[in-house]
Design goal:
The structure is a homotrimer. Chain A has about 140 residues and is an alpha/beta fold. Chain A has four helices and eight strands, in the order βαββββαβββαα.
Chain lengths: ~140, ~140, ~140
């Protein structure tokens, strides 16, 4: 976690996906203080005819769902939304008016990565040290 | 928001998708009083062999997840489920016994559309007026 | 419900999918006591270049989201996570370090299957008897 799920009607080049992934990861780490090695970004397609808005086909829309560990302030989550929306628009050329973004909170106690129950926000440093062996090849330096 | 995510093993024609989108949009607006321009419907496929039920391949199933802003009564949400289930069955010919539907509530304070934090249910009218300029080309008349 | 959504970069044979579906279904029923006929498993792809971790393309990752009815103890949900993670790794050969799993709780009162509002955990037996006619062809014996 987090998982940023981005589904879009826009055809994105590998370079644009890489730029979005890099920028979303940077924004997440800066906004929340979470360690970078756990930031997932996933891209999916909205083929023409698969997305409707107000009952009509939407040809140029993007839906972003950000699943993050629960426990950040509302202020942090809203700042995250603003940064993500602006970054997506800047990197893809899609106007912000075409975007829908949501932050979904997930209880760290029911998330498992690398076979380990995740720590709550703020408890990462001790968790990384305690689980260094299990995390193994993962880059554990934030 | 809302986002109605419909994934199905059934091959739907563009006409059927349009009919479902239109009907789900109508049901949402009538049930909740939300403004029509924000109602998203997304269709996805469940190719044969990608869906299992009770450990066996399910050849004729549909999963619908409705992400709506939090704050409606349980009565409203259950009425919404009943209307959606009946409408899908009527428009696709799939029996209701093949459907799984869920309503997932999302906090409006962590949803962003058109670069704006969304209002809570019931606060839309003032929000639409206050943000007319930013909403721009969106059809803001419910 | 539940719905186990498994998206993976790994190409899975029909036999492996069937084995995962069978094992996840068994684990769910044993861990929660829920009736087998309602256990959904869905597989999706993460094509190369659609998944990034820490800003770089992830070539060998799996994301599993388990939507289950709310009301089980944290102990039950964590035991479920451990069993699922180990089973996926054993059946696919993917190391657990490549997996992200989450359990998401959904309120049974806003889930509809076979046209019926679902019962809360523990209330299934009475619900199955009361709705035998509506459930019809579904296998209602757990």
């Amino acid at each position: 976690m987090p998982i940023y799920q981005c589904v879009t009607s826009k055809t994105l080049s590998p370079e644009t996906k890489a730029a979005i992934a890099s920028e979303f990861t940077r924004i997440h780490v800066e906004s929340t203080g979470a360690p970078e090695p756990f930031v997932n970004i996933v891209f999916g397609d909205l083929p023409l005819g698969s997305h409707y808005l107000a009952g009509a086909v939407r040809e140029n829309g993007t839906l972003i769902n950000a699943i993050v560990r629960a426990g950040r302030t509302l202020e942090t989550r809203q700042a995250l939304l603003k940064s993500l929306s602006a970054a997506w628009s800047r990197l893809t050329g899609q106007p912000e008016r075409n975007l829908v973004l949501r932050i979904e909170e997930a209880d760290a106690a029911t998330i498992m990565e690398a076979g380990l129950i995740m720590p709550r926000p703020g408890e990462e440093a001790a968790w990384l040290v305690a689980n260094r062996a299990a995390l193994g090849e993962m880059k554990t330096a934030a």
